[in-house]
Amino acid sequence: MATASSEGDDDEYEKLARLDIAGLEETALRAHKEGRQQDADGHYTAALKLDPANGLLLAGRAAVRIALGEPHAGRAPWVPVWRVVFKRIAVRKDPTLDASGDPNGKMIQCLRYNQTIRVDGEPVDGWLKLLDRGGYCMIESPKVGRLLERVVEGPEALSQALRDSERAIALQ
After folding, report:
1. What is the pTM of this model?
2. 88 by DSSP, 3-state: which?
3. CB 133 within 8 A of CB 109
4. Alpha helix (H) ranges present in the chain?
């Protein structure tokens, strides 16, 4: 933060001053990726001052993310993976519903409980586009409930593990 201010870049300084600890972590990782180590160190220092109780966790998470070679700081380089949580679900050619809300696209194959699928992008209107198999899967059925759940992986898995650790520490 001090670097942006000392260089006279008041807009950058103002942006950083409004960020929370997670935002500072992301800007620090971005600065690290771009080879601006002095800026990255300043952002980490600002984050530690903002939330000293979580300073150790923040520093550890940043070190692990850098060590893992996370190249994105905010963009997901991995392909989202979802898991089937119902006994059997249909893969359909089209993500269409009839008037009653039931899927009416042609069924092209079936997935079984606990199978994982790679998907193309994020859900659209409750449907996922499958990457490897072609076709679409409904995430939740109005009649039977949840059909698929997202598998946490990549940097998101690290964040989830750290959140779980933080909750465990808070309970002690």
Report:
1. 0.48
2. strand
3. yes
4. 2-6, 10-17, 21-33, 37-50, 55-67, 155-171
Give the integer Cα–Cα distance in Å for 146 and 122: 17
DSSP structural state of residue 9: -
Give the residues across from 110 on adjacent strands: 90
- Examine the pLDDT at 11 and tell me if it is beyond 70: no
The yes-or-no verdict on residue 58 having pLDDT over 80 is no
Q: Distance between CA 34 and CA 50 in Å, rounded? A: 24
> How confident is the model over 79-88, as pLDDT tens digits?
678 899 999 9
> How far lies 65's CA from each of 72, 81, 132, 150, in Å?
10, 20, 28, 21
Percent of the chain having pLDDT more than 70? 62
Strand 140-141 relative to strand 127-129, pairing? unpaired
Q: Which two tokens stand for residue 130?
A: 């499958």
Adjacent-strand bridge partners of 90 = 110
